[in-house]
Amino acid sequence: MVKKNACVFISGYGSNLKNLIKSSRDVTFPIKVNLVISDNKDAKGILYAKKNSIPFFIVNTKKRNYESHILSKIKKYKISIVCLAGYMKIISKIFIRKFGKTIINIHPSLLPKYKGLNTYERILRNKEKKTGCTVHYVNEKLDNGKSIVQKFFFIDKRDQKKNLKIKTQILEKKAFPEAIIKIFRYS
Ligand code: GRF
To answer: Does the global pTM surpass 0.90?
Structure first.
């Protein structure tokens, strides 16, 4: 099987990046992570790129044309899929059109509920009975593209933000690889 080249965008801890790198070690997993983009030079996730000798590129989002720099890297590394894993910048319409291939994102809620930021706080405030994560296609509206994989759990009355996040992120580690397998199985 010829693996597709994937680029993972991060901003912070990078636990999903770490997990995708791990999944990629399986010969039957459809992608290999061969480029990492971070908008934060201090993102811990960069260490996983370094550790695994994956090229990484830190973008200066204060520069107007920073997405053009990303696009040129993506072209250079022949990327077929972009995986947003905790990337805190909004991808522009121009980027989506110019890349023209698959972009997916992982979001810590059961979309279409709780798009945007501060999901855990809002979920708790609204006394939701269940929550989870969604891997979805990225389109031109925030957290709005078609869902690929969703996983949920029931919220315990004692759950606070910290354990809601832990439980959600455990599911994310299953959902992201599953979504990638699903995309390439049917393409
Ligand atoms: C994840 O929980 C994801 O749902 C959200 O940002 C978090 C990133 O975590 N979009 P990590 O950097 O992969 O550890």
So the answer is: yes
| Distance in angstroms (rounded) separating the CA atoms of residues 82 and 104 | 6
Name the maximum alpha-carbon separation found in the chain. 49
Q: What is the distance in A from the centroid of ligand 1 to the CA of 40?
A: 14
CA–CA dist 150, 123 (Å, integer): 16
Instruction: Say what the pLDDT of residue 186 is.
Output: 62
Distance between CA atoms of residues 7 and 14, nearest Å = 13
CA-nearest of 31, 40, 52, 42 to 9 is 40
Q: Which residue numbers in the chain have pLDDT < 70?
A: 186-187
Residues having CB closer than 6 A to ligand 1 are 10, 12-16, 45, 85-86, 106-108, 133, 169, 172
Q: What is the pLDDT of residue 94?
A: 97
Q: Spell out the SS3 assignment of 53-72.
A: CCCEEECCCCCCCHHHHHHH
In this prediction, residue 125 carries a pLDDT of: 97
Find out whether 77 and 5 touch, Cβ atoms under 8 Å: yes
Single out the residue of 179, 138, 184, 142 nearest to residue 28, CA to CA.
184
